[in-house]
Amino acid sequence: MKRLVLVLIATFALADSFITKDEYAKMLYKNPRGIGCDKCHGIDGKGLVLGRYHRDDNTTVKVIAPDITHIGFQKFYEALTSAKHKLMPHYFLTDHEIKTLYYYLNKKRTK
Ligand code: HEC
Fold first, then answer.
1. Nearest 5°: phi and psi at 65?
2. I need a labelling partner for 28 at 20 to 30 A (CA). Which of 36, 84, 91, 93 fits?
3. What is the 94 CA–ligand 1 centroid distance (Å)?
4. How far apart are alpha carbons 34 and 28 in whole angstroms?
C-alpha cells in the first residue's frame, strides 16, 4: 500500500512538470528573455502597428512589426541572430529556441 501511494505521488509530480511541445512553443513566443514576440508581432505573428507619427506636412508614418508567418527558416534565423535591427531587441536565443519559435508560428498557419 505504501509503495502504491509513493508510485501515485511520483506519477502526479512528474505529470505536472511535463508540458507539450505546443505549450512550450507558445510560452516561449510569449516570453523569450522577458519581452514577448507577441507584444510587437501579435499573438499570431501577423504583425502589428507599433506607433504612428504625424509629421508637419500632414503625412503619417507608421512603425510596424512585420508579419513573421510567411518567411523561410533561413531568413527567420538570420533575423534573430544578427544585430542589425533598429527596433527589435537582440535576443540571445539558442538554435533550439529559434526552431521552436519557428514551429509555433508555422503551426498556426496550417490551421
Ligand atoms: C519591440 C518590438 C519587437 C519585439 C519584442 C520582437 N520584434 Fe521582431 N521585429 C520587430 C520590428 C520592428 C522588426 C522589423 C525590423 C526592425 O526594424 O527591427 C522585426 C523583425 C523581425 C523579423 C524579420 C522579419 C523580416 O521579414 O525580415 C523576425 C523573423 C522577427 N522580428 C521575429 C521576432 C521574434 C521571433 C521575436 C521574439 C523572440 C521578436 N521578433 C520580437 C519588432 C519586434
1. -100, 120
2. 84
3. 16
4. 10
Half-sphere exposure for 20 (CA within 13 Å, toward CB): 4
Distances (CA, A) of 67 to 18, 29, 92: 31, 14, 21
Computed over every residue of the chain, the mean pLDDT equals 87
Q: CA distances (Å), 88 to each of 9, 22, 28, 84, in order?
A: 45, 24, 16, 9
Instruction: Tell which one of 35, 40, 52 to mutate to probe ligand 1, the residue whose CB is within 8 A of the most ligand atoms.
Output: 40
What 8-state DSSP symbol labels residue 67? P
* Contact (Cβ atoms closer than 8 angstroms) between residue 45 and residue 67: yes
- The H or E element containing residue 89 is none
Amino acid (1-letter code) at residue 98: I
Is the model more confident about 51 or about 7?
A: 51
pTM: 0.83
